[in-house]
Sequence to fold (71 residues):
Amino acid sequence: MDVDLSATPRAITKTTPLPIADIDAGSCDSHGVNVYKGHHFYHYESATTLAMSKIAPMPQDITHAMMACQE
Fold:
């Protein structure tokens, strides 16, 4: 999705369908993009890879360590 940040209110100028629906959260860092859905996450190498994907990668479990939780 492209957003025109100069418009007031902000306006979406382009939408891109994602390979995953009902996303709960997302995060990115120097290692790529993580998309969170339920108790799983999906890792993409970049935002471009996420936008261009036709299918989702294999889901991975969210761990306590990922969320900085101590058991």
Notes: The longest strand covers residues 32-37. The chain has a mean pLDDT of 88. DSSP finds one helix and six strands in the chain.
